[in-house]
## 1
Amino acid sequence: MSLLSLEKVDKIFGGLRALKEVSFEVPKGAIFGLIGPNGAGKTTLFNVITGVYTPDGGAIRFEGQSIGGEAPAHVAHRGIARTFQNIRLFRAMTVEENVMVAGHHLHQSSVLGAMLRTRAQAEDEARLKKRARELLDVMGLGKHASDVAGSLPYGSQRRLEIARALMLNPKLLLLDEPAAGMNSQEAAELERQIRFLRDEMGLTVVLVEHNMAVVMSVCEAVHVVDHGETIAHGTPEHVKQHPAVLAAYLGKSTEEVA
Amino acid sequence: MALARRFAVAFAIGLVLYGIGAWLQDGLIEYVQRIVLLAGINVILAVGLNLINGTTGQFSIGHAGFMAVGAYGAAFFGVKLAPILQRLLGVAAVADALAFNIALLIGAVLAGIAGLLVGAPSLRLRGDYLAVVTLGFGEIIRISFNNAKFLGAATGYFGDSPAGLPAYTSFFWVYAWAIAIVILIRNLTFSQTGRSLAAIREDEVAAEAMATPTTRLKVLAFSLSAASAGIAGGLFAYMQSGIRPEDFRFDKSIDMIVMIIIGGLGSISGAVVGGIFVAVTLELMRDFQQYRLVLYALLLIIIMLVRPEGLLGSRELGDVIRARLGRAKAPEAAK
């Protein structure tokens, strides 16, 4: 059974139809690529899935349950974590604090408990800290735990966003352009880390990415959208040859290609 | 063990406060004593307001209203409660102290509820809109007291005896409450809840994507902040013979904003420093009160130009001292 399925999802902004009947299924345990030219609607798709936008039509199902239109915090609780294209870290907070914020499920004590510093609260805090350190180590940021997040280099900020998303203990991870601004060495390291998340941590990963080397190397299935519509779907090799994809990326009209 | 140690520390602090209080009572002229008490009350106001304006980043400029709710609530219920407790307990001093503190708590709860009622609908708004709404609610609260006959309307509330409200507010109680509130809010700030509040300030969209219940936490912080203002209001009420609606005008809210901006938004120790600073400058400027807002405006402009982050920025006093010590040690390490 697929973990995430979209069925004819529509999203309309005023006169612009940002998504037109987009359908795809992400199998459990997949590394799934979502590509397309700028403005194709990839980030809109992420926003519709995570509840930032309410879809105007169609159905979104996660583990068989409909989640279309749920509030972002609810969707996150269900086990869908994301990163942001334009990096949205809690900049003034430390790297470790950024990750700890997402650890609500490891934290049971009440507000009153926090104010009185009860023993249960101290244990919660220790548990959060330990898990945050583990995840920072996974993403290679262990050394920077007490640095201010806003002071990290760009590539590290992207990896910190992933670490923070992992703290939610998600089943599905949505990565919005994780390799943007990374050099080839960093991108290769990221590929290794994404595979680790799937192989060792059992996550399903959907990534939006412009760096085709990364997409072709890590993704098993790729879905291509342009102008809010699906134009191709299949293995990276298949998609790479697809005339509609070439047309979308190279700017030819489909008639010319045909 | 931890609990026993906490009680020991609390007892030691209480003893020290009691000693200082007794010494102040003989040693200082009444005028200075008043400033010292106001400084403590300001600390409570500033630390409470900082929770919502500094830590959570939701700008309230109507906290004078919550202070008023606490003041009237504590005054009204304290006056009714004291005779009952005196009859029950027999010892007047104990009964008064008990009535006073229960009254403060009642005032805090009422202010917290007022905060909940104001916050729940308005915290969906952001930035300037929220500021305007809180300003409006602050005024509505004040005008309600202005028209409440059973609370003396515009003349003010002076209790049931002709002598006015009893002078319960002492150095000991002001600073006991101030220390307790600073500790409670500090603990909250450095917990998962506090981190989540700061995350809302930093990026609300990301906070929501990380499963943070943003609306609930904002309302909670607002309500706790209002409750602290309520305690300060209660202490303020029993400092004088009575309270009048005009004690809680808009400029009282501005005073609070000035306290936390001077100290540095988001810093608890900054709020403490700012609260004390405002109490002292207000008294120094007593002779030219009408220019107070002008002077504050000038002061704020100077701070914006010279030190936009406030005295402490978002750091705590401990961080600053540690950083200084670290810098002092660094050259030695370099050798």
## 2
Amino acid sequence: MIKHKRPLSPHLMIYRLPLTGIVSITHRMTGVVLAMGLIVYVASFFIILQGNEAFLELQSFLDYTIIRIGIWFFVYALFFHLVHGMRHLIWDVGTGFDKDDMDRNAIIELALSFVLTLICY
Amino acid sequence: MNYQTPLAKVKGLGSAKAGTGHFWMQRITAITLIPLSLWMVAFTEQLLNASHQEMVAWLSGPIDIVLALAWVIAAFYHASLGLQVVIEDYVHSEWIKISSIWLMKLTFLFFAIAAIVAIFRISMIG
């Protein structure tokens, strides 16, 4: 298709993403993960419905260390998506677009969602 | 005066008169989900630690069941709107894009109905 190697303007694969860019794509990825997680929640409703035995079996499964770690990542993903989503709502009002605000808010988001996860723990 | 070219007309391009609907519903469900996400976290905590009896009672209280149903509706709606954007951005073949969006939406509708039915049935044992 491309016959001549002509210079391209910098695009996604070429330049290093700024922090805002990393946070932005993380928002999308956590969103997809959370959407998939909803299916697990539906499954858990049906397991509760099945009765005590099935429920205890589920709980002992959720007790595996690797599953527990997964659950905590999921909770972090939830809080991150929530906090960054609130920033989108602030952007919708039309403020917070200065470069310094962007960097500072990204750090606040990452830290705040970590703190919120820690509080749950 | 119609400025549309004949080619655009025959391809069915142009406004569908529903341009802001997706945007609005995404924001409305987002705002709704700010408090309801805390319900989700509380439910997760119960799921890990409560006994079966406590879990059933927790889910089937008069306010708890309303919160549970509100969460299901808002979360599944919000998720399907979000995944729609992701598919639109990364799938470039027109027929695969349209059919995968519909398949995804019907799947989420199906799971939302299943969740609502399950919540009602749990409230009957509680």
